[in-house]
Predict the 3D structure of the following.
Amino acid sequence: MRSFLLHLSENKRLAPLIMNNALSRRVARRFVAGERLDDAIEAGREVNRAKRSASLDLLGENVSDEAGARRAAEDYLAIFDRIAREKLDANVSLKLTQLGLDLGEPLCQELLEGIVAHAAELGNFVRIDMEGSAYTQRTVGITRRVRAKYSNVGTVMQAYLYRAEQDVKDLVSVGCRMRLCKGAYKEPPDTAFPKKRDVDANYVKLMKLLLSSGIYHGIATHDPAMIHATKKFVRERNIGREQFEFQMLYGIRTDLQEQLVREGYRLRVYIPFGADWFPYFMRRLAERPANLVFFLRNLMPQSTRPHGE
Ligand SMILES: Cc1cc2nc3c(=O)[nH]c(=O)nc-3n(C[C@H](O)[C@H](O)[C@H](O)COP(=O)(O)OP(=O)(O)OC[C@H]3O[C@@H](n4cnc5c(N)ncnc54)[C@H](O)[C@@H]3O)c2cc1C
């Protein structure tokens, strides 16, 4: 089911059917703050009020023309200005294919550098999301090159990738901040651990490598077992709660978010917004069968829903 949904997430013909459907738009709002920057700012304020930081993500990926990539870069400059004006405790997450990576590395790097330079002037930070494995090498390369000029940029490591351990070591050696996640894309078994058990074991191993580095990293997961392992490790190693942060996605495990904040841990909430929400939404459905059931139930007319709804 996970593979099937991830396959559908790349289907360009399905996207408008789902996106133009009022009910699926309503369900998507559980995971996406809204279509406008104002919606993301409002969600950011709410998150800040709950003593959590935010990372705003303008949804969009695999932009296929230069004008689109330049428009996305302009949008990100405006997002940083707005964050500063609103005095939000928020940084920004972006995807390199949104900045034209499919059109070539020079264009993508040029646009990213413009955004990172602007964020630096405002004392803010740019997180480069990690996409499918076809982009890993180029994402790591661009991150390293831009990081050599500006320190306010970091990327993401996916624990399901065999290569992640080496990437973590390489990027730690140049002082790069990273977000650790499990990985959300459809990957073949020669590239990524197929079994959850192995992904989880690698996640714990990489978490320990990252948090031993003395660099400020993000531990992104909703998995109580990964969170427990992290808390135990920092306790044993005397790593302060201000030396790292947990990260979770908007609308997911808000109970756990609240608990971590109550316990005195730092927590950042990833807030996606924008009109291009289809692939993001499908990845969230793929992560948890219950989300698909929730979605399908909402699509059913009220009268045909099972008793008790
Ligand atoms: C802040 C943040 C940023 C991320 N950035 C990236 C990125 O750049 N690249 C990338 O490939 N992936 C990214 N991801 C997604 C990540 O790779 C996983 O796909 C996702 O977080 C699910 O993994 P998990 O660690 O929560 O553990 P899982 O083992 O998948 O889930 C553990 C538990 O968490 C809850 N849960 C997990 N997902 C959902 C969901 N969708 N809906 C409801 N409950 C859920 C359930 O209770 C589940 O039992 C990011 C995740 C976070 C939190």
